[in-house]
Prior knowledge:
Elements: H1 4-11, H2 19-32, E1 49-55, E2 58-64, E3 69-73, E4 78-81, H3 91-98, H4 105-121, E5 142-147, E6 151-157, H5 159-166, H6 173-197, E7 216-220
Antiparallel strand pairs: 1-2, 2-5, 3-4, 3-6, 6-7
Amino acid sequence: MAHLGGQLMATLADPSVTLTDGLASALERVATMHPECDLTNPGTPSATVAVLRQRYEVLDYLVLADSPVVLEGTSGGHTVITDLRVDEVLPELRTEVERHETHTSGHREALQRLVLAQRQVRNTPDGYWVAGANPEAARHCVTGSAKLGNVRSAAVMSDGVSRLVTEYEMATWGQVFSTLRTEGPSGLIRSVRKTEATDPTGRRWPRYKSGDDATVAYCCW
């Protein structure tokens, strides 16, 4: 899905195009770039998507899978837009993965079983949806909008960053935005890594690997 970001930016440059339609178009364009690939294979690369677009005096947002958009209100409080349907499927296999410390054979084997099973239900009505070869996934996003005047700042991040609040419970959203204002995205990512370093084998906070991918974009008004 390396080309998806560029295609998505191109399709959403037109403010009359909805985020859903833009994502569907981008997914279709990326698929046509790989005619030699079997895009029906369950192992076809996929990605979570989190988009925030300013359109005149409105902020439009779209989330597909567990990379959230977080809005900080001008009067305080935070609105978290995320899609956690992946957490609702195959709970027994997820529990089995979390029983093992990372970097162990038991963890690797349990994770492999979970990943293989997830591929069978990915982008199906009985499973969960992510950005893949089928543009139909775009129709299953979480979408909405907020008035620009009601938003002080916003962050778009991977779940590898948001878990500092949602899973590790080592910060509040207010503290996250304070870090973003003073230290920027790199400072927030350092905070995540510092926290994870205190639990390198996932004993306190079970996870798929010692450090999941961490990315964040921050903007303010």
